[in-house]
Amino acid sequence: MSDDAAIVISVRDLVVGFGRRVILDRLSLDVLRGEVIGVVGASGSGKSVLLRTILGLIEKRQGSIAILGIDRDAADNDELREIGRRCGVLFQYGALFSSLTVVENVEFPMREHLGLPPGLRHDVAMAKIEMVGLKPDDALKYPAELSGGMTKRAALARALALDPEIVFLDEPTSGLDPISAEAFDTLIRTLRRTLGLTVYMNTHDLDTLATVCDRIAALADGRVAALGTMSDMQSCDHPWVREYFGGTRAHLAARGSEATAAT
After folding, report:
1. pLDDT at 241
2. Alpha helices, DSSP H only, in the chain?
């Protein structure tokens, strides 16, 4: 496989701003097939802006974005629809439709993209719900009846509805207690391994960065200030990266990752 074939997301010289404020300033980043990449940055660093721009939800001023070999700027409607089908998204707060049950939420992308009969669509949705660790009874619940961890799992089931090649996760463990967060991290590792997913993850969770991510992209000053493993982050001399990854919590997370790998 060539280097280009291994790149599933290519961002080049991306500039994004609002009014006179520039958020991303000639940022470049490649995401490789089959990896879990964690994107981290201080508040206002642009990690959410970057994710939404890659997804086409925010307009860029300059640069190029290619997903699965398709240039967003040159893509026609069919190609953009193909990108949508081959990518799944879990937004920070789940973004489930409050008036739909869990199973109806998971079926929703299938209604838009697949011509499945209702019975088969329901069966596929139930399989996705089971895949993320929810019980059959949970499928009939509404979002307001779910705990935080259950909401994340339901949203992940919807993100997996179309058997995507890439899954985007926006702060997947935010708001979860440590036990639920660890369980969700384990779920991501399992799904990545069994489904062969590429995972692009925005997170500030040091445990997640250490135990789930193959590489970390640290954003600062509108660009990727550091890119590599947790060990690379801890040896980086950029001031923000050094402060964030040089503390006791980061070192404990890294040791926990080594212990997990050894078991």
Report:
1. 93
2. 3-6, 47-54, 77-86, 102-113, 118-131, 148-159, 178-195, 206-211, 230-234, 239-245, 248-262
**What are the DSSP calls for 59-103, one per residue?**
--SEEEEEETTEETTT--HHHHHHHHHHEEEE-TT----TTS-HH
222-245 pLDDT, tens digit per residue, is 999 999 999 999 999 999 999 999
pTM beyond 0.85: the answer is yes
H/E stretch holding 202: strand 198-202
pLDDT tens, 100-128? 999 999 999 888 888 788 899 999 999 99
Helix axes 118-131, 148-159, angle to 10 degrees: 130
**Is 26 in a helix, a strand, or coil?**
strand
For residue 178, what are its two tokens? 């440590």
CA distances from 11 to 6, 18, 123 (A): 14, 19, 37
d(CA 22, CA 26): 10
